[in-house]
Amino acid sequence: MDAATARLLLTPEATALLERLPAYDTIEPLSFGSRLRREGADGELVAAVLSQAELRLAARRKLGDFAQGMLFTREGLEQATRLTVAARHARRFRDAGTTRVADLTAGLGADAMALAALGLAVVAFERDEATALLADHNLRHWDDALVVLADSMETVRGVDGVDAVFADPARRTGRGRRHDPRDYSPALDDVLALRDQFPALGVKVGPGIPHDALPTSTPDAPVEAQWVSVDGDVVEAGLWCGPLAAHGGRGALVISGDEAHELTGEPTPGEAGTLGEFVVEPDGAVIRAGLVGPLAESVGAHLVDPRIAYLTSASEVHTPFARTYRVLESLPYSTSRLASALHARGVGRVEIKKRGVDVTPERLRPQLKLRGSASATVILTRIADRHTALIVEPVGG
Fold first, then answer.
1. ∠ CA 285-291-292, rounded to 5°
2. Residue 273 predicted with pLDDT over 80
3. What three-state secondary structure class fits 392?
4. What 3-state class would DSSP assign to 80?
5. Which residue has the higher pLDDT, 38 or 387?
6. What is the C-alpha to C-alpha distance for residues 316 and 146, in angstroms, rounded to an integer?
7. Which CATH number fits domain 77-264: 3.10.105.10, 1.20.58.220, 3.40.50.150, 1.50.40.10?
8. Residue 256: phi, psi to the nearest 5?
């Protein structure tokens, strides 16, 4: 989006048109837009407003009811922090006693909104003019939230009153995601270098960040690395420094609905053992944090294979950090063997999970030629260096 389109969206005409639009999922956009133009609405305005209606609908998954009064760009919405996670970010800053937070990469302002909602003053930096205009609109309800059109890395050290910093560096280009933190914008090392002036520093990073890229935690300068999943999806990792760190180690925060649970510890290799009656699938945040070994120890399970992040147990495991399955059948994996076993059970619908086996579930499924009324879950994995198929059912239905 260019700055001219952003300014167009801030006009009273755009606001009025957005307010009277029906819900986007109840209209046919092309015909509805044609009708608005026939009624005299400007074509450029109609296109911009319909795009916002579509983005607001998509944003509800991340931002709930707040999305209805916000303005978006597609790129900004993709990177925006989910409301439930942004609220947890904000509480860290509040609980650490900070009062004025510099958001170095404000984007559309989701994290700045969460900070301001807790009564913290915010200086929200944004380099892109169009995005800054939309962020200023989104933060209009908070007098202590200031949007600054500038490169934060060149400016933040000179801003009065700032006692904490938050950053969510860009991790995408036109060619896809940036996995190397040196390729973030701004680069992770450059953000972390601000700790000499702002010890209370938090950085949202990609959940695939290499562990050897994590900053060292020391008693004098603790760093907490926390991976976060929401309803089964790993959405981010966060690096929390100085007074923002609850501990100097790693954590996995698992959010499901209104509940949140955290597993903390240090990566330790788990022990492998024989396959039991149950298979336990750790949450993705636990896996990304390297805490499968500590989870296994805490629930009395062991690994199915030293290099595979599935656990197994002789008894049911109940934990918010994993899902448990009862093993119905175990067989050496081949397409024909698996197809025969599923046919014998009358399975017509199958969920395929895999780890440690070079199989594409979307390609395998039609090769099984399933028919029948039953459904099943199949786990394809490696046990004792052998490719194995497990037909399982979730514990609890």
1. 95
2. yes
3. strand
4. coil
5. 387
6. 52
7. 3.40.50.150
8. -135, 110
